[in-house]
Amino acid sequence: MSKIHVKPKSKWKNVKFESNFQSNDNFRDLICFQELTDYEIVSNKSPKKRKSTDKENGDTSNIRKKQKLENTKSLEKVASGDEGKKKKKKRNKNKKKASGILGKTDVPTDSSKKKKKSSDTSSQSTETDHKDEHDEISDDVWRKAWTKLYIPDPVMRALHENKFYHPTPIQALAIPHAIRDRMDIVGAAQTGSGKTLGFGIPVIHNILRFKEKNQENEDGSELDDLEMDQPDEDMIISDLEDHEEEESDENEDDEEEDIEEEEEEVNEIERGSEEDEEEDSTKIGCVKVIDDADFSSLGFPSPKLSTGDKFPLALILEPTRELAIQVKNHLVAAAKYCDIKIATVVGGMSIEKQKRVLKKNPEILVATPGRLWELIEQEYEYLSNVKLVQNLVIDEADRMIEKGHFEELTKLLNYIYKKEDTSVRRQSFVFSATLTMVHSGPQRHILKKTKLTEEKKLELLMKRIKLRGKPKVIDLTKKTGTVETLTEARINCTLDEKDVYLYYFLLQHPGRTLVFANSKDCIRRMISVLTLLKTNPLPLHADMHQRQRLKNLDRFTANPRGLLIASDVAARGLDIPDVQHVIHYQVPGTVENYVHRSGRTARAMKEGLSVMLVGPDDVKNYRKIIHNLNKSEDLPLFPIDQKILPSVKKRVSLTRQIDTASYRFQKKKRENEWFEKAAKEMDMEFDEDLLLNDLGDSSEQAQHKQYVKHLKAELDILLRQSIVPKTFSGKYITRTGKLLLPEQPGTKTDAISKVKTDKPMQDKMNKAIQKKALKMATVKHKTFKKKKKSKRK
Ligand SMILES: Nc1ncnc2c1ncn2[C@@H]1O[C@H](COP(=O)(O)OP(=O)(O)OP(=O)(O)O)[C@@H](O)[C@H]1O
Q1: What is the CA radius of gyration of the chain?
Q2: Whether the CB of 608 sits within 6 Å of ligand 1
Q3: Which of 134, 266, 448, 506 lies at 20 to 30 Å from 550 by C-alpha?
Q4: Residue 416 vs residues 103, 239, 553: alpha-carbon distances, Å
């Protein structure tokens, strides 16, 4: 294949591809795909060491073929890891230096592995040989997939250990722009698509670089060449011109940017001249070549300041405590082979303990805004310089600008962006699965007055979170909002029937299940009912002690048949492995909440099921969600085996009797106790007969206790009986002589395939109903016309 120097006459244009495109093995090395349709060929060069490279790049040969100018009129620019392999010896030398920058790693290279293998062969069995061969293949694939993303070697090692063999699409697109181009990133991708590492890896990379540079500075050694990939010489001419064009376009865009007046209600923060500094470094194509001496352009504070003062280099803001802890753990795993300390600062836990952790000067701080602000207000030393933070991540950003977080976030951001600290060029990351979701319905959102477009929503969001400059916006979300591997269904029922259907589902489809409710009262009642029904539910809501919240999450995670009843505090971000089902006991008020709640299942390309229990009160929200998710039809009905429903109903109704009886009694008792205590504290005398709830005399109370005990005993008997009625009889089709009986409860029934197999039947039925309705309407219309005609006569 010959090398061609081209001079572009038009702009490189992005070629759109679906986010799941990269899951296709043939295209997994692809990061971006651009085409150039008008160009002039400057020169043709023969390849020097091309053969072996092409062989290595076999799986991307299809894409490369497209680059042959002889065959096609257009030219595609493919930023793939294979570029790295094409580059010259000089670059390899740079790379060696770079791995020095990032610390030595034990990740074996392909060749070292091969050597090891050949020396060991005599002592290995054939089976082991096969295993090694397999490992080597995945090792090769893994390296190819990640190396082009500029991942630090120690992180590569951790990724391999975690068996993260390919970057997810959001990672593949966000990481190079963040690391290579040092751009601010606004990332929107479906739930469970790996956004955490999308910002986590660049943050770790930045800190490693900072520490390395700092070390060199302290040692007085010269600043090394940066490890950034040098541009492929083949591309330089075209890229240079292309980029010049891009920059002028950007400037034009900037001038056009005119943010509307209504945004002025947000406190303006004073900003310095960072924006001007942003384009300091020279860009060649999409690769920035940064002047060695220009330390600050990398976003690092001045070395003088960094050696003495301690402050977090990265701040990651999360809306909930559980999420902050999870993200911290995720990053700890990714930074396992890096010398980086990561800490959490979250509410509900000992502030003193957190201060002790901060004394160790963690480089990364994962925090919820409330507790962080509390510590800043206390003028806690380590946080007094938080304004110098180099990497700022606002995860679940659309949630962070909603009521309840926005006020604290604004205070924090105002503090961080103080004018006097503008010497620092900060890199910001803004992520969420619903960042670009726009809809016409009323929103709880703080931006509710505006009729939003996707662009407008992003613009306002960026303004609110005070994002400077022009970030790289990567939006991989679909119009349908939810992830492809999610199966959705609904159960139409009355309010009273919700417990019945929920219990039915849990019996028939065991598996890790997360149930969402809209209020704490509802969670309390469900916990009581489901505990009596021996389904071992665990609650999770904001009013619980933090320790208990975390304990329940752990217990839920550990039990493959775990049942968690949660408020929306668990709706966002939580990455609990293998949640099979999400049930919306009450339909959420916003489409965003529906997407996030449902996103607790079907993560990382796994399948999952979301079922909404739609009662009369939920219909409005249900309709809104369907509309805002651009669904053309209703969700399918979840198939219910009507034959076993009566026994389920019997159990549930008895349980509710017990719950009501004991709850009412306990409630009255608690109120009395509270009143007596309060009166005592105030030295008040009161008339017990008039003011306290009547609990009855001691014999009545004993009677009540007995009644509840009796009900519980009755329930115990019911729970031991089979759910399939004994008197049951029915006609069953036999297939190849085998009698197919109804499913027994407890037998593992795959709820997802049930929905999927039932859907065509439902569609058929719906069509038949519609056809019948149409027929009837036509008949009615004809009779009406006839009658009218005869009347006239
Ligand atoms: N490259 C990868 N290969 C395989 N698994 C990955 C990869 N990156 C992340 N994961 C796993 O995918 C899961 C989801 O990742 P993550 O929690 O970052 O998703 P998310 O996009 O932030 O989801 P949400 O929007 O719900 O917060 C995690 O279990 C994570 O460990």
Answers
A1: 31
A2: no
A3: 506
A4: 31, 36, 33
